Request: fold
Amino acid sequence: MELDKRNLYNMPWSINESPLGWLEVTDICNINCRGCYRRNRTGHKPINKLREEVLFLKKWRNPDSIAIAGGEPTLHPDILDLIKFISENGMKSLIITNGNGLTEKRLTELGAAGLTGLSFNINATQERPEFKDAGIASRETLDKIRLKYAKMVANAGGLTTGFKIVVDNQTIKDVPGFVQWAINNSGLINSITLVTLRGLPVSGEFEYFTDGKKIDINTKSLGYAISAGEKDKISVTSGDIYKVIKEHFPEYDANSYLGGTADHTSFKWLLGNIILNSRLKMFGSYGKKSMEIIQTFYHLKYGSYLLHMKKRKSGRKIFFLALFDKTLRKTFYKFLKYVFVNPFRLFYRINILNIAVLQAPDVLPDGSCDMCESCPDLCIYEGKLVPSCRLDEYIQYGGLLRVYKSN
Ligand code: SF4
Reply:
């Protein structure tokens, strides 16, 4: 069950061409998250500046979709105009949100403006009003809140829905429950994203510099500074999460990846899926050949690479690719055997649950930083493309901190 890069498709994305453009529209938020990447509260970005950034991303990264992030982007007063502008420029838009304060009416307005979908970040590490009522952020409470938003989006109609969780060495035990929740609600949601908790350790073995000047960082100054006591929490890898999911759901598999910039063994983005029907019968997954064909043909047809699908388009059509993909052939045979027993099963809807595992940047023992190759989440800072996960270093220190092993 070891991950092997030869069994996966290395996504053809690059700094110059990525399926995604990342837009930071505000750093204002209506909740607090531990390890939040955005500690500086400077306000909402003016709409004219955001329009410039959309055109900048379109010109220099040729994205298929724009991720609208923050802070909490739904708080931005001009979010509808921004979505309209992105849509008028031929791109999809995806809001990265904590959901807090969203209503069905607001979702309908966002959909009417041209929004493609939402990715909800709902985690036990957040200070959310719902937790106050429930007292603790139990898994049941989290599942209930997530289902509330999944149903709200489904009622608004025409939007895709995804959920993200942050995984550390304590919450990795909740991964099977989260995946099972997603499978149970695969009629409502398209994707889940599991991100490993990461940050810059402030436990003394590393020193941080900018422009040759030594910088003392701490958990107050930098949201993703990791204190000595929390160091173990950032030890989980994407490979660990892959194994846990595969153990509990053998039908799941990964088919493509992005590697690291400093560690040849790392899987920074690991993309996979489960193919199942509306009765939650799981058949298997589609493999690297299908992903290669999808990326290549999508690029030939639309001139850009693909990350976010519009509202449920594929379903059983995916089986056509079984001709070229041995992983998918196995999945298709299992489906045929299942239908053969009772042909009415043919009419059960086929869903594809997309599962992304992201391993955020690692500070390696020698002080080098293993970032994601071709970083799809590059955002704009003072006319340059910078990794959004480390934007606060640019805002606070004028650039990426250089990490050196302490003597
Ligand atoms: S390096 Fe890029 S893709 Fe990776 S976590 Fe940071 S912003 Fe996201």
User: Anything to note?
Assistant: The pocket of iron/sulfur cluster is lined by residues 268, 360-361, 371-372, 375-377, 387-389 (CB under 6 Å). The longest strand covers residues 267-277. DSSP finds ten helices and 22 strands in the chain.
